[in-house]
Specification:
This protein has 470 residues and is of the alpha/beta class. It folds into three domains: 73 residues, no CATH class; 258 residues, TIM Barrel; 45 residues, no CATH class. 40% of the residues lie in helices and 17% in strands. It contains 17 helices and 13 strands. A seven-stranded parallel sheet has the order 1-8-9-10-11-12-13. Strands 3-4-5-6 form a four-stranded antiparallel sheet. The chain has a two-stranded antiparallel ribbon with strand order 2-7. Helix 12 links the parallel strand 9 and strand 10. The radius of gyration is 24 Å and the shape is globular.
Length: 470
């Protein structure tokens, strides 16, 4: 892909081969332009990217490669529009036999990523399959420079994502009745202590080199019934304030993508995995399930205010990252606790014209029908084995029957493959299995792992852009 010499770009040659209408907005160039960017043409004309510090392009190699490709291109590819890749090396991405042919009409996309996501969530026809990987700091930490230090939103744009993972729509503070102290004694340990009118509680987390962004809980906040009462008192004195400025800035800065906002977990995973711990929670629930239920109802009152703040915000799509998982919570607790509260989140967001997706990267095969019948709009980051346990195509079909979207499908073990051809085969097999599903979005099963190659991320996005499943 050539940023600066548009006349020799793959898109220009493709359009010429098909005698197709083609529009292009160059980042820089030697022609007549309107507008202004800080970097000057003389600084970037021979660079691999539109920045003055980008590495120099091998111009002789580029000229040789383009001359070899341009002559036979029109003859070889006439009628095979599915070869449009939009990113990786021309000729390396093959069209899906069942779905990519006639997927694009030979012109540039008429819908951007935000419009495509919006259409898929409505079950409407789109030009291509959306590309929705979960790219986070852990993904970035395994990439070479300059990608390894790139702004996370710029990184999502670099890899062609149609859906960017944004931040929160609210901030929180305690009123004057609460005294909160935070300390970092060293070795990655962070300690938070809270003095409330109902008692004192504290928690500790530890960051380790293997998990530098998400700490491990080494002392849970709630260790007894007295701690639970103090925690509920803490919630009573927590103030939730809508905070939409950053989201609005991101939506304006990246109009080509769907900027999402995160919404809070429901009370069950919050209590069980973050506040009490699985073993202690199971014992406490067994001793007094009614008391645990009352505590979760009190938590839901605070969580509802957080969701209402998201509903008031500018993001069209919200994602709940609570990791619904039968291996953690079991079928009965998911049915009794999680799904009803997720349905309540959905109702709040739907009333404001928003959509709700739920991150479900774990074991969900035993509750897929219950998920399909729920009120939220779909699930995302769905993983095949070993992280998950379901057949992604079958799960997507079950959700589609209920008008719901499924995103994900590429396993963590696939993303770290060093064999590019094998990676492409596995992704194409997935795409052909979901070829008839209008609500499928190609993405990562869970977050894209550290160790995933940039080539694989670009290749998966190119496959999505080359295929139309409608």
């Amino acid at each position: 892909m050539f940023w600066n010499n548009c006349a020799l770009s793959y898109a220009t040659l493709t359009a010429a081969a098909f005698s197709a209408y083609y529009r292009n907005i160059a980042v820089s160039g030697m022609g007549i332009v309107t507008g202004y960017v800080k970097v000057r043409a003389a600084q970037v004309w021979n660079r691999t990217g539109p920045k003055a510090n980008s590495s120099p392009a091998d111009l002789k190699a580029c000229e040789k490669a383009q001359s070899q490709r341009s002559a036979p291109f029109a003859k070889e590819n006439r009628g095979r529009v599915g070869n449009l890749t939009g990113g990786v090396t021309p000729g390396r991405i093959r069209p899906c036999r069942s779905s990519c042919a006639s997927s694009i009409r030979g012109e540039v996309e008429l819908m951007n990523g935000r419009q495509i996501i919006r259409a898929v969530l409505q079950g409407q026809a789109t030009e291509r399959v959306p590309w929705v990987p979960c790219i986070d700091p852990y993904t970035r930490s395994g990439l070479p420079e300059p990608l390894g230090s790139m702004d996370l939103f710029e990184l999502q744009r670099y890899f062609g994502s149609d859906l960017y993972r944004g931040g929160w729509a609210s901030s929180e503070r305690f009123d004057s009745a609460i005294r909160h102290t935070h300390s970092e004694p060293g070795n990655g340990v962070v300690v938070d202590a809270y003095e409330t009118p109902g008692g004192s509680i504290r928690e500790a987390h530890t960051f380790v080199p293997e998990s530098p962004y998400i700490p491990f809980p080494t002392e849970y906040l709630i260790k007894s019934w007295a701690d639970l009462d103090a925690y509920l008192c803490l919630l009573e004195h927590t103030i939730v304030e809508p905070d939409h400025q950053r989201l609005g800035e991101l939506i304006n800065a990246y109009p080509q993508a769907m900027i999402t906002t995160a919404v809070t977990d429901t009370p069950l995973p919050a209590l069980m995995t973050k506040l009490i711990g699985t073993e202690n929670f199971v014992f406490m629930h067994s001793d007094d399930p009614a008391r645990i239920r009352r505590a979760m109802d009190a938590m839901q009152a605070l969580h509802r205010r957080r969701v209402e703040a998201a509903a008031q915000g500018p993001a069209e799509v919200c994602i709940c990252y609570e990791n619904t998982n039968t291996s953690s919570f079991g079928v009965r607790w998911i049915e009794e606790y999680e799904l009803p509260w997720l349905n309540e989140y959905a109702e709040i967001l739907h009333a404001a014209g928003k959509k709700l997706l739920v991150h479900m990267c774990g074991h969900i095969r035993l509750v897929i029908e219950q998920i399909a019948a729920a009120r939220f709009d779909g699930i995302i980051d769905v993983a095949p084995p070993p992280t998950g346990d379901c057949d992604v195509a079958a799960a997507a079909a079950a959700l589609n029957e209920h008008g719901k979207t499924l995103g994900g499908g590429i396993s963590c073990t696939t993303f770290i493959l060093q064999d590019a051809d094998r990676f492409e085969r596995e992704v194409r097999e997935l795409m052909e299995n979901v070829a008839a599903n209008p609500r499928f979005m190609l993405g990562s099963g869970d977050a894209v792992p550290k160790g995933a190659t940039g080539e694989n991320l670009l290749r998966a996005g190119a496959i999505a852009r080359a295929c139309r499943l409608r």
